[in-house]
Amino acid sequence: MEAIWHRAPHIICIHPGWRPLLGWGPIMNSWEGIFASAFEVKVEVTEVQLTLDGGLAVIVVEETLTQRDYDGVSRATVLATNVFQLVGAQWKLILHHGSPVAMPSDAVPRVQ
Questions:
Q1: What is the 3-state secondary structure (H, E, C) of the chain?
Q2: 8 Å CB contact between 65 and 41
Q3: What confidence tens digit (pLDDT) does each residue in 32-87 have?
Q4: CA atoms within 13 A of residue 24's CA, in its CB half-sphere
Q5: What is the spatial distance between Cα 68 and Cα 37, in angstroms, rounded to a whole number?
Q6: Closest to 37 in 3D by CA, of 76, 67, 77
Q7: Is it the case that residue 104 has pLDDT exceeding 70?
Q8: Taking the model in full, what pTM does it have?
């Protein structure tokens, strides 16, 4: 996880249901805690949408998370927005925002 994040004070991470985390230390601590709380974490990425504009890339994906811990196996679906900044010759993550998905992918939200 450390390799993809930009080491800068302006980086932001919002895990599903969490308040925003700002800066390298809090963000890395959050990921360390997430990975330490399970025996196994598997992420399957689908529905990739990419927007590229100069030195910024916005990637929206659907993530299916499977986690195995003392309580068994759990699965969750998250829509994630990831913003990368071109830093030198490398793309570095500067924003991750995950939102839980509450409806099936074929459901159409009602507009009133």
A1: CCCCECCCCCCEEECCCCCCEECHHHHHHHHHHHHHCCCEEEEEEEEEEEEEECCEEEEEEEEEEEEEECCEEEEEEEEEEEEEEEECCEEEEEEEEEEECCCCCCCCCCCC
A2: yes
A3: 998 888 888 899 999 999 999 999 999 999 999 999 888 899 999 999 999 999 99
A4: 9
A5: 9
A6: 67
A7: no
A8: 0.85
Candidate CATH numbers 3.30.70.2640, 3.10.450.50, 3.10.290.10, 3.40.50.1820; the one for domain 12-100: 3.10.450.50
Percent of the chain with pLDDT over 90: 75
Map out the domains of the chain as residue ranges: 12-100
Residue with tokens 């330490």: 36
φ, ψ of residue 26 to 5 degrees: the values are -60, -35
Token reading at 41: 């974490």
Which amino acid is located at 5 in the chain?
Answer: W
